[in-house]
Amino acid sequence: MLAIGHRGAPKLAVENTLASIDAAIAAGARWVEVDVKLTRDRVPVLLHDRTLHRIWNIPARSPT
Predict the structure, then answer these.
(1) What's the CA gap between 50 and 63, in Å, rounded?
(2) I need a surface site. Which of 20, 40, 50, 55 has the fewest CB within 10 A?
(3) DSSP conformation letters of 14-28
């Protein structure tokens, strides 16, 4: 069986973070899927949502 971490291991650490990726690997994931977006100035960031509210409780749009 192949274990793939979806946005890392979001039940163990905040999704799309290095801590979540590390947790997925420690839990046995051989692959990790993350969401990459570009900011307006073309800097890549790991972020899934269009706002920062759900994960970070910041009432602002994402930087993309």
Answers:
(1) 8
(2) 40
(3) -TTSHHHHHHHHHTT
Q: Which of 31, 40, 34, 44 is nearest to 13 (CA)?
A: 34
Taking the CA of residue 30 as centre, how many other CA atoms within 13 Å lie in the half-sphere pointing to its CB? 3
- Cβ-in-10-Å burial (0-12, 13-18, 19+) of 50 comes to exposed
| C-alpha–C-alpha distance, residues 46 and 34, integer Å | 7
pLDDT attached to residue 50: 82
pLDDT reported for residue 61: 64
Q: Quick one: how far is CA 16 from the chain centroid? A: 1
